[in-house]
Structure formats: structure tokens, C-alpha cells
What does this fold into?
Amino acid sequence: MVERFYIQVFLTFFSCLAVSFSASANSPPKSALTQPLLSLNISGFASIPAMNMSSPLNAQYDITCDGAHFGWNPNVADCASAINYISPDTEQLVFGQRHTALRDISVPLPHRFMGDQGECFFQTIIPNDRITTARASLAEIKRAASALLFSCAEGDNSQGGVISQIGGDNKLYIVLGIYKPRVQCRGTFGLDRTSCQSILMDMPADKVSKTWGMEGQKDVQEELPLMLTSGNHSHLRQYLK
It folds into this structure.
């Protein structure tokens, strides 16, 4: 059997790990980034709605709440736990698309912060294809994510949204979105998850739909099973069920 789906299949890998990660406000920036992250694209970012001000309390930001585009009724508690995982570090970091030969990138995109339940995420994006990098600190991202959650999800009309003008060079946007994990966790896992995090930080992630299937099948572009490994012998295995 051949199935078509986005390369974003490593959702399952992260969701089993995310439950046991804990935040540390004193962690150095790069280690803080690898706590509860999920690096994906979601379709539709190229057509982000025009920005508008959703709350006078967030006058420095441009916020758009759009449930049709980003989902309705996010799990607010899970969104709050995602924000808790974002370090308040003030160092300016450089965000840029992974595997594009760009130099001096601190954070490879796509990059996502998720809550303990894996149902709410904040994703940093650069929606303008003509812009290759953006600068912001984790503290600026944390404050902007809190403002976005307050403006879009904590009222009667709870929904996802997007925020810009967050600080740094103001080229980075943050999306509040909803995810419904379909995860089966099996077996046990060691305490050191650094090698698994390194897989997430470096694995391919794009919006190109491909055909996945077993070797020798017609029109297959990515052969399964596919194994991604780290230097410490942790691995992610993709297969058809």
C-alpha cells in the first residue's frame, strides 16, 4: 500500500517524549530550545490573513484571531504549559529555514513549542518567502505567546491566531494552533533524551507532499521503513501500518 502525506510524520516521535520534559528558566538558550519542540510546517501559512489589533492591552503587537484558519477551542491549559517551556532568555537568536545553507542560524525552522498534552502549539514562522532569517529572543517569544493566548483563546470565542511585531527585527511571526495527536507510546525510554532532540533539530521538514511506500512500489518517492539516527544511536523509524 502507498500513502501520501506530508513529511511532518515525526509528530508521533515528539508526542511520546514531550510528556516528561520539564522547563528550566535558567537553561542556556540553545538547550532551552530543545526541551518541548516540534519542528514542522503546517499548510496555509502562505495565506495568513491580514493582521489586526485584537486587544488594546496588546498595543505593541499585531494580532489576528482566526479559528477558521488556525482552529477552534484550543486546550488553554495545554497552551499555558507550552508557554511555561519557553525560557525567558533575552539573547537575540537567528531563525532561518533548515538545510538551506544559511549561516549563523541559531534556530532551524520550522520550530514549534508544544504543551504537555501535545494539543496546543506555538510555532515560529517567517511567512515572507523573500525574507530568509529573523531575529528575536525567547523572552520576546514568551511574552508574545502569552499575549496571543490571552487575546484569542481565553474568551468565549476561543480560537487560534497569529501575532507579529513581537520584537527583535519584527520579521518573526508566532502562530497559536491546535493539534490532535494520534500517538501510541510503547516500551521504556532512558533519562537522556539529548540524542532524540538532535534528530528533531536536524531532520528534514518541509511542505512538499510526497508518496511513501515500500521499496519497489510504483511512484514511491520515499521508501519505507525509513530510519533516522543520531550520533548516540537513538533513532526514529517511519513505516506503514
User: Anything to note?
Assistant: The CA atoms of residues 46 and 207 lie 11 Å apart. The radius of gyration is 18 Å. The mean pLDDT is 76. The helical segments are 11-18, 29-33, 67-70, 76-84, 138-152, 194-202.
